[in-house]
Request: fold
Amino acid sequence: MLIAQITDTHIKAAGRLAYRTVDSAQKLRDCVAQLNALNPRPDIALCTGDLVDLGKAEEYALLREILAPLAIPLYVIPGNHDDRAALRAAFSDHAYLFSDAEFLHYAIEDYPLRLIGLDTTIPGEQGGELCERRLAWLDAQLRTAPDRPTALFMHHPPFLTGLANMDWQNCRNGDALGALVQRHPQVICILCGHVHRPIHTHWHGVTASIAPSPSHSCVFDLREDSSHDFVLEPPTCEVHYWREGAGLVSHLVFIGDYGGRFPFYGADRKLID
Reply:
C-alpha cells in the first residue's frame, strides 16, 4: 500500500501569495501533477492540516479546485490555520468528517493498513492538543481492532524537534498520547505536519515523523534563540510504502523535473563511468 502525505499547503484566495512571497496554490498544483504521474500511483493521499492559510470559505473553494484532478482518494484533517466549520462545509461530500459533532477525527477501515486521523486543533491558537476526550476516543477506536496494523495521522507533532521556533507550538499532552500508543502495539507510526521540514524519530516504541510542505520550509536552525523564518527549499511531499509483515518505509519525493532521469547502470548491470 502506498500512502501520499501532503501537508501545510497554506492556500490563499484571489491570487494572493502566502507571506507575500509564495505561490502556494501553484505549488499544490505541481504536487498533484507529480503524484498523478507516479508509477505506481499512491493508493490514497492524506492531507495533514493547514490546508488553507486563513480558514476562509474562498480559500477552501480554491483548495477543492486544485485538488480535483488528484486521481486517488483523499483524507483531510485540520491544522491551526484551518477552521473546522469551513473545512466541513468545503468537504461536505467527505462523510468521514461528520462522524463526531465537534472534532474532525475518524477511522478509515477500507485498506490493509488501518488509518486514524486525529484533530489536534485549538481554535485561535497556534499550538495543538489531544485533550482527555480526544484521547479517550482514540483509545476506544484502538480497542476495537487490536490486531490490525494502524497508522495515526495528525497535524501537530507530539514530540520536540530541537527547532525552538516551532517546538513551543507542538501538541500538548504528548506524553499521554505516548503512553496510550505503548498500550496499543498495533500502532506502527504517527504521521504529522506543522513544522514544514522532514523529521523522523523513534518515539514511545513507534516511528513518528513530520512531512515537509510542498510550498515553503521552516529554516533549519537549532539555536535556542532562532527566529521564525521560512525559506524556499525544493518543494516536497512524502510517500509511505507499507507491506504486511515488513512495516512502513517513507520516501521524500521532490516535486519537479530537476533535469530529467539518466541511468547509472548499463544493460549489462555495470556502472556507467
Q: What stands out?
A: The first strand starts at residue 2 and ends at 6.
